[in-house]
Amino acid sequence: MSTSPVLAIRPLGFPWETADPFLFCAYHDDAYPRGNGQLGPAASLAGRDIGQDFSRKDGWSMYHGDGVPGFPAHPHRGFETVTIVRKGLIDHSDSLGAVARFGGGDVQWVTAGKGIVHSEMFPLLETEQDNPLELFQIWLNLPKRNKMAEPHFTMLWNEQVPRRVLADAEGRKSEVAVIAGHFGDAQALPPPPDSWAAQDEADVAIWTLRMEPGATLQLPPAVLAGTRRTLYFFKGDAAMVGGQPVQGPVAISLEADVEVAVAAGDTVCEFLLLQGRPIGEPVAQYGPFVMNTQAEIMQAMQDYRRTQFGGWSFGDAAPVHGSEPKRFARYPDGREETPAG
């Protein structure tokens, strides 16, 4: 009988496969060129399907943007988005009246709940050098009792995200950033109040790991029985996970209730870990709406047509927030926030 904690290994596509309670994980790694002074690319857009460009032509896409890359105003209901920006900037605007510019390790956590409209644009500020963008967007489901919760917007600034740097016996270092859950004594900042991650029975964790070549690390076991855990090996050539050699990029399903040894190969290795106890409810999805039944999906569509989930107060479907790189957030109650540091 095998004692390996590795349950399955699957190649990474787009988007990445996830397990309940997660719905979706998209990894964007766009090599945007210099900006044109209007926050778009200083490059020809010929040959791209503008409005629906996922081509990765020349290493980048415009997505649904026409002048500035990104995702103009669109609705959500019934789940949450957790957006982790590793490089570059995102300009956020939403139907609650919140706006933000964030990046460089910042995390935005949005509970769509009963309905929100938001835009996520990727402004290219640098006109003398390239504008690389790297981010994860994770969709975390909501249980039935919270699908119609009030929408909620919050920022977890890079300077606030708990991190641990661990050295192995050879002095080789691994850094763990704790976006949700805890790693040892590193406890994440509180998630939104109606999040599945805020429930005691959920055992949700979201971590990023960066390991120096040859570094070793022990992943601690999950707290609760029944938790599901997936380790996404997205950067690096080779690693050992639970004693099993793996070649990246892959998704590795793990036994969650045991400690798992991870060893980087000859290059820097980076991982994203997603874990949680499954919600275990039916999932009905139509594009940006995730409910429990098709009748609820139809109701979501009708509600959006009728109310626009509060409407859109911006003069543009794809607002951007100027040419200054300063990160900030303005919350629906008018409170303004800038990260310390």
Please identify, by name, the CATH architecture.
Sandwich
Rg for CA atoms? 20 Å
CATH fold node name: Jelly Rolls
The span between the termini is 52 Å
What does this structure look like?
With 341 residues, this protein is mainly beta. The protein has one domain: Jelly Rolls. Helices cover 4% and strands 42% of the residues. It is built from one helix and 26 strands. Strands 1-20-17-22-15-12-11 form a seven-stranded antiparallel sheet, with no helix packed on it. The protein has a six-stranded antiparallel sheet with strand order 3-8-5-6-25-26, with no helix packed on it. The termini are far apart.
Summarize the SSE layout with pairings.
Layout: E1 6-11, E2 22-32, E3 70-76, E4 79-87, E5 89-94, E6 99-103, E7 107-111, E8 116-121, E9 131-141, E10 152-156, E11 163-167, E12 173-180, E13 182-183, E14 186-187, E15 205-211, E16 216-219, E17 228-235, E18 238-241, E19 244-247, E20 250-254, E21 260-264, E22 269-276, E23 284-286, E24 289-291, H1 294-307, E25 328-330, E26 336-337
Antiparallel strand pairs: 1-20, 2-9, 3-8, 4-7, 4-9, 5-6, 5-8, 6-25, 7-10, 11-12, 12-15, 13-14, 15-22, 16-21, 17-20, 17-22, 18-19, 18-21, 23-24, 25-26
